[in-house]
């Protein structure tokens, strides 16, 4: 059984795949407590893999995004294998502090201050920018390095930083701009 906060269908709002229809599986709980976290993830119900797969089967997209909370607390090789057998491309949103199954197709690592990154394979880095020194995160081995405004509030500050440090790209939380989940 895996503790699920919510399962919903929307567009990936952030990062490289922004605009892509995806089924979100939001797991409960996290090993960090970021003061800016925009998600109430603690509540949830234990679901069997059969029930999870049956729920996602009701949506037409082939992309699944594992998020939370911190999805690495709840997933294993068997879970990813079952999603693949259901024909899904599996993406994860993780804070990068815990290991994850190697079979995941797309890894978004969002490192947090004072929480060392343990992952050594990732496709994109996506840092919530609050004025901290983000230069060490450019060393993380990803194809894409994004800075994301915090709750859409400091977009100008982030744009100015990126213009001065052009190895970064902008990730907006586009779902919040168009008022979808
Ligand atoms: C809620 S987290 C869940 C996954 C994982 N725990 C993590 O932090 O990557 C999903 C994404 O939202 C970002 N995020 C959380 N709070 C935010 C906020 N207030 N503004 C912008 N992005 C935020 C996180 O950094 C992460 O990239
Ligand atoms: N539309 C939409 N896109 C997202 N991308 C990452 C999200 C997350 O909370 O992990 C998220 C989310 O909550 N909604
Ligand atoms: S690591 Fe992710 S889910 Fe956990 S508190 Fe931070 S932003 Fe929220
Ligand atoms: Mg979100």
UniProtKB/TrEMBL annotation:
Substrate binds at residues 11-13, 26, 67. Its EC number is 4.3.99.3. It catalyses: 6-carboxy-5,6,7,8-tetrahydropterin + H(+) = 7-carboxy-7-carbaguanine + NH4(+). Residues 17-181 form the Radical SAM core domain. Binds 1 S-adenosyl-L-methionine per subunit. One of its GO terms (molecular function) is magnesium ion binding. S-adenosyl-L-methionine binds at residues 36-38, 69, 110-112. Gene3D superfamilies: Aldolase class I. Its cofactor is Mg(2+); S-adenosyl-L-methionine; [4Fe-4S] cluster. It is an enzyme of class 4 (lyase). Pathway: Purine metabolism; 7-cyano-7-deazaguanine biosynthesis. [4Fe-4S] cluster binds at residues 30, 34, 37. GO terms for biological process: tRNA queuosine(34) biosynthetic process. Keywords: 4Fe-4S, Iron, Iron-sulfur, Lyase, Magnesium, Metal-binding, Queuosine biosynthesis, S-adenosyl-L-methionine. Mg(2+) binds at residue 39. InterPro entries: 7-CO-7-deazaguanine_synth-like (IPR024924), Aldolase_TIM (IPR013785), rSAM (IPR007197), rSAM_sf (IPR058240). Catalyzes the complex heterocyclic radical-mediated conversion of 6-carboxy-5,6,7,8-tetrahydropterin (CPH4) to 7-carboxy-7-deazaguanine (CDG), a step common to the biosynthetic pathways of all 7-deazapurine-containing compounds. Belongs to the radical SAM superfamily. 7-carboxy-7-deazaguanine synthase family. Homodimer. This is 7-carboxy-7-deazaguanine synthase. It comes from Parabacteroides chinchillae.
């Amino acid at each position: 059984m895996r503790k699920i906060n919510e399962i919903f269908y929307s567009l990936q709002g952030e990062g490289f795949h922004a605009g892509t229809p995806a089924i979100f599986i939001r797991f409960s709980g996290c090993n960090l407590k970021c003061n800016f976290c925009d998600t109430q993830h603690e509540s949830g119900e234990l679901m069997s893999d059969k029930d999870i797969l049956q729920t996602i089967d009701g949506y037409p997209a082939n992309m699944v995004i594992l998020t939370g909370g911190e999805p690495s607390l709840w997933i294993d090789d068997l879970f990813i294998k079952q999603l693949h057998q259901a024909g899904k491309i599996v993406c994860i949103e993780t804070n990068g502090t815990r290991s994850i199954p190697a079979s995941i197709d797309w890894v978004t690592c969002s490192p947090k201050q004072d929480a060392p990154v343990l992952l050594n394979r990732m496709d994109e880095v996506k840092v919530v920018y609050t004025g901290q020194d983000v230069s060490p995160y450019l060393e993380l081995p990803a194809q894409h390095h994004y800075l994301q405004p915090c709750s859409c509030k400091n977009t100008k500050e982030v744009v100015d930083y990126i213009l001065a440090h052009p190895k970064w790209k902008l990730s907006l939380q586009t779902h919040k701009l168009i008022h979808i989940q």
